[in-house]
């Protein structure tokens, strides 16, 4: 970009990963004059694996702002084709007691807080959300079977040279790592940020709702059941699907505790094999002492997959650089930027907010000085690109750093409780203490109702001395 005499060429953004964040970023940058976006995805195809994913009001608003209206339709709007399920009560989540099944607590009512119904927390089968986003991206922009392996700066040509695992290369002005929790882009620049297992293991199942249709007293709402040492989540999803997720805690430093049952779930295997096939008999045994409703539910689960949970520390900066790659050319979005491990079911919403913010930052400060729009020295564009990444980081990072702090503290507390319960002198948690733990859990409102547009507008005011002019902050409109 900094060679004044070069003919105009598009400003090229290479995105590693075509998951929720990568696709949303491509949509945020769609139709921008002078900007070309290529998505490089490791998978051979956008696969139907994964289970349920929730979006809170912040994620729903970002979806709407990006123009992904097809993903806002839920099962109440269209019982068969609605993509997601929302609790009719307006409570994003209902918490029940593991033995009695009674409601002990709820998250705060969205109706009472004046949130419009179309922005209420919605639960999707992840593949449906990915499909809804992909419908807005030109398939020619998505290059499959391209796993990011490394990046270098070509100073003579003024661009990045990205290398893929198959030995091929691509060039770009900006590289965005949207390659998920185990991001290679992140660890390429910050090797110490490799995620570590938190000790939590989830049994995730998604199946046709007909499997549970016979359970007459099954609450028709997203429900989290808490017991002394494990939890069970269940909910309808869009398109007549249903999900059940069991989660239990191990000591991450004592893998000899790995064998959960005589059916033999070997934790060592499951830690390395994400989405490995689980055993429904194991799932049933894990909940065999719980109340009758839970037992009927797990008896109806036809299959399950195992997802070990991992997380990493907060990064010092999202404006990445190395001895050979200058600052202002590489950044991260989604789980790649904040490997929090899915806690609070907020990963999808954060990814959408990240993508919107990065798109808005580029639109606000970079695009107006690209040669295709206004003639101007291209060193200005270099400076503006760095400024755009700094505005993006200032909009997002403090929020996700706070999340990482909360998540690491919660993980440590769970492991400490487990270790305490395993000592000879352990005093078991009383029922009243369990209920109190449910009632005093972290209130997730600050996450699910975070207003990314307000933070972005403040950051632009601070850095530019004016309100955003290029970006429409209205939820009704496309970016
Ligand atoms: C297959 C799958 C299933 C999931 N299932 C669930 C679930 O059931 N529940 C839940 O809450 N969350 C799930 N997640 C995580 C959830 O999607 C994210 O937390 C959230 O949506 C943030 O999205 P993301 O785009 O940052 O990351 P992801 O959705 O993880 O997307 C990352 C993308 O990058 C690709 N990728 C990885 N490495 C490379 C590389 N080296 N080069 C190029 N591309 C690469 C991946 O294949 C993927 O498509 C799943 C993720 C994946 C990939």
From TrEMBL:
<keyword id="KW-0285">Flavoprotein</keyword>
<protein>
    <recommendedName>
        <fullName>FAD-binding domain-containing protein</fullName>
    </recommendedName>
</protein>
<keyword id="KW-0503">Monooxygenase</keyword>
<dbReference type="InterPro" id="IPR036188">
    <property type="entry name" value="FAD/NAD-bd_sf"/>
</dbReference>
<feature type="domain" description="FAD-binding">
    <location>
        <begin position="12"/>
        <end position="187"/>
    </location>
</feature>
<feature type="domain" description="FAD-binding">
    <location>
        <begin position="323"/>
        <end position="366"/>
    </location>
</feature>
<dbReference type="InterPro" id="IPR002938">
    <property type="entry name" value="FAD-bd"/>
</dbReference>
<keyword id="KW-0274">FAD</keyword>
<dbReference type="Pfam" id="PF01494">
    <property type="entry name" value="FAD_binding_3"/>
</dbReference>
<dbReference type="InterPro" id="IPR050493">
    <property type="entry name" value="FAD-dep_Monooxygenase_BioMet"/>
</dbReference>
<keyword id="KW-0560">Oxidoreductase</keyword>
<comment type="similarity">
    <text>Belongs to the paxM FAD-dependent monooxygenase family.</text>
</comment>
């Amino acid at each position: 970009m900094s060679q004044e005499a070069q003919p105009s060429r598009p400003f090229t953004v290479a995105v590693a990963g075509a998951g929720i964040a990568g696709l949303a970023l491509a949509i945020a940058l769609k139709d921008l004059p002078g900007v070309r976006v290529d998505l490089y995805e490791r998978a051979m195809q956008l696969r139907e694996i994964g289970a349920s994913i929730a979006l809170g009001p912040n994620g729903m608003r970002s979806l709407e702002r990006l123009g992904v209206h097809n993903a806002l339709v839920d099962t109440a709007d269209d019982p068969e084709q609605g993509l997601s399920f929302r609790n009719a009560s307006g409570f994003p989540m209902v918490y029940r007691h593991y033995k009695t099944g009674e409601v002990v607590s709820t998250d705060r009512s969205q109706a009472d807080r004046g949130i419009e119904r179309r922005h209420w927390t919605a639960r999707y089968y992840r593949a449906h959300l990915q499909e809804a986003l992909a419908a807005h991206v030109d398939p020619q922009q998505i290059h499959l079977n391209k796993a990011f392996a490394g990046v270098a700066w070509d100073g003579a040509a003024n661009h990045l040279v990205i290398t893929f695992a198959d030995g091929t290369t691509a060039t770009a002005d900006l590289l965005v790592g949207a390659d998920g929790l185990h991001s290679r882009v992140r660890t390429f620049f910050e090797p110490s940020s490799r995620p570590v297992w938190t000790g939590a293991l989830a049994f995730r199942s998604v199946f046709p709702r007909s499997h549970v249709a016979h359970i007459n007293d099954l609450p028709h709402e997203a429900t989290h059941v808490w017991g002394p040492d494990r939890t069970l989540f269940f909910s309808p999803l869009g398109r007549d699907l249903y999900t059940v997720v069991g989660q239990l805690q191990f000591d991450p430093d004592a893998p000899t505790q790995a064998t959960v049952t005589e059916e033999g779930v070997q934790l060592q295997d499951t830690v390395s094999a994400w989405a490995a096939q689980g055993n429904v008999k194991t799932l049933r045994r894990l909940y065999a002492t719980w109340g009758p409703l839970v037992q009927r539910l797990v008896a109806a689960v036809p299959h399950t997959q195992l997802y070990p949970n991992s997380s990493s520390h907060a990064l010092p900066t999202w404006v990445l650089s190395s001895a050979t790659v200058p600052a202002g050319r590489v950044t991260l979005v989604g789980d790649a930027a904040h490997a929090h491990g899915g806690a609070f079911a907020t990963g999808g919403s954060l990814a959408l907010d990240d993508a919107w913010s990065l798109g808005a930052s580029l639109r606000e400060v970079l695009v107006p000085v690209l040669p295709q729009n206004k003639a101007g020295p291209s060193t200005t564009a270099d400076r503006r690109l760095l400024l755009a990444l700094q505005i993006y980081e200032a909009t997002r990072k403090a929020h996700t750093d706070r999340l990482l702090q909360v998540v690491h503290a919660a993980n440590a507390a769970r492991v400490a409780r487990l270790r305490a319960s395993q000592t000879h002198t352990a005093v078991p948690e009383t029922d009243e203490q369990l209920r109190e733990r449910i009632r005093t859990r972290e209130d997730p409102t600050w996450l699910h109702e975070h207003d990314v547009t307000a933070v972005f507008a403040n950051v632009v005011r601070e850095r530019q001395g004016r309100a955003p002019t290029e970006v429409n902050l209205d939820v009704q409109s496309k970016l």
